Amino acid sequence: MFLAIDLAFIIEKLVLIIIVVMGSLLIAMYATYAERKVAAVLQDRSGPNRAGPFGLLQPVADGMKLFFKEEIIPAFSSRFLFILGPGLAMITAIMTSAVIPWGNTVEFFGRTISLQIADVNIGILYIFGVVSMGVYGIMIGAWASNNKYALIGGLRAASQIISYELAMGISLIALLFLTGTLSLKEMVVQQQEGLWNVVKQPLGFFIFLICAFAECNRTPFDLPEAESELIGGYHTEYSSMKLGFYLFAEYINMFISSAVMATLFFGGYDVPFLDESTLAPNIAALIGIAALMFKIVCFIFLFMWVRWTVPRFRYDQLMHLGWRILIPLALFNMLLTGAVVLYFNK
Amino acid sequence: MQALTNRVKTVSRKPMNFLERLYIPAIIQGMIITFSHIFKKNPTISYPEQTRPFSPVFRGLQILNRDEEGRENCTACGLCAVACPAEAITMEAAERQPGEEHLYREEKYAARYEINMLRCIFCGLCEEACPKDAIYLSETFTPADYQRKKFIYNKQELLIPHPKEDPEAYKKALGNRAKQQDSDTKN
Amino acid sequence: MGITTIIFMLLSLMAVGSAIMMLVTRNPVKSILWLIVVFFAISGHYIMLNAQFLAVVNIIVYAGAIMVLFLFVVMLMNLNADSEPTRNVRLQAVGILSGGSLLLIILSALMKDGGNNVVQMRIGDEGLISNLGKVLFTNYVLPFEIASVLFLSAMVGAVVIGKK
Question: What pTM did the predictor assign?
């Protein structure tokens, strides 16, 4: 009786999933190019400019190089887990995109299609769940490598991500006080009608931003792969496309966390001072997608800009920042928001 | 102690104030600095397409010269080999046969002329020693190669292109020298 | 057999199978990974019961945080299959005894109930987040608040220990 499923619905979602996953991969691909270009521009260099016009084919060349490289699996590693690690990192990176509303609804063939793969009522918690899974990819790969540098990198990643998840969660609770919903779609709708959440929650956003840097293992929190002390960190033993998966997962994570920040704090696909209801729904949706993409690109640039400015923290400084500054700050922010909400609701 | 240069900066050991301990102003300052570099000029010269102009006294790969009619200048006198501090030049002389006047300018010529580019130090003494203006140092680098024997340049590789048969390549090989000759003739 | 039953069977198989694997595997790291699979299977069951909040929290807290700490400790202490101490026969007997009595208790509880109180698939909406929140903040305010104060004090305690 339950096998009777709406076939059109499944096809629609499948197409959406494929588009989103491919889009994430494409953007991650060009994020690697953008990273090098941004680094070059910030350092008065030219960056990749040989493959194709302006070096635009560079990511393709890099990918091909990784594919054709020799695959090395260390003799004393645990083979299955060694392969599982990068796969897990990649899967968890992509999975997060399921609950992000990429735009409003579009109409095709008389069907109204929501540009969100799954509007679950626990949207933010889902993101948290998947992000907390993300560390396994690193930890399993690090342990399976049977290499001390990789192990240290993995341990660093684990403790770092757990520490910053806490502050991230608390900073979000303050946001949830205001929105009263866990669904990302509803949050965007609320922001379309009112102010963007960043205006109401500047401190919360700031904490979230710092934690996002830490969760993505981006500089200044890239201690798990600190080249200068740990060789390659958790991916020391990796080569070929498995290394590529790890590097790629980092960029997908960056893309997704930019999308999450844009959705939570910067109105998602909302364009300020534009009444979407006056436009045709498909055009409005397109404008919305473009707006979201613009916000995401700005965030990705911010990630890169910070990477090429701020040097890496020392490990004790990282823990100090996470536990002794961000968590009390987030708790204070939560209390403050709670008090304000309580005061105005009376 | 007196500072050795005027660029010395003494490290301030005073405890940081609150704003400095916050670290965020410092980060923002740094980010402004990096952002300002977006608008700075990029000093990169993308090499094969663009080249840095050489100084007029640049000494590169040797070239054996010809005169305007395409005859080789070299008479295999051996002065360059004597002058060469690295002993990179070897040659063998031969006598010009009747009917070869269009090939060699004088009665004696170099049948074999080799420069070992691994030994050459590009001092330019061969050019100074040459009484016939037969050898000079051009503006090209010695290209890299996988085999040592490729670095021993023979006469065919050293000779300048024929000015009649291939005037463009000849002009190119002359390089700065052509301009110099032009200005010399004008003066 | 509806699709619900099929999924239920698959999830149960996964849960029980990986639980057995967890016990059988000699390598502690692999044991933990099997335990994570168990948690995922259980989260799947929660979703089947329409308790999405519980499912996600189960993943965040158990699979995402506690298991990471387990893994962390195991990696830090470098426990391996060969460094495992040989088991004492007396300890094994005690383990069998306690495990067996737990099984008996569960079995007797199930028998007594007689299958009247079987959970309904996809029907209950108690697990949906708004209902759960209402129940927690009306019927169970006091225990909930006590638990949250406990957690808060634990967190503050961690920060204080960090300051030392």
Answer: 0.80
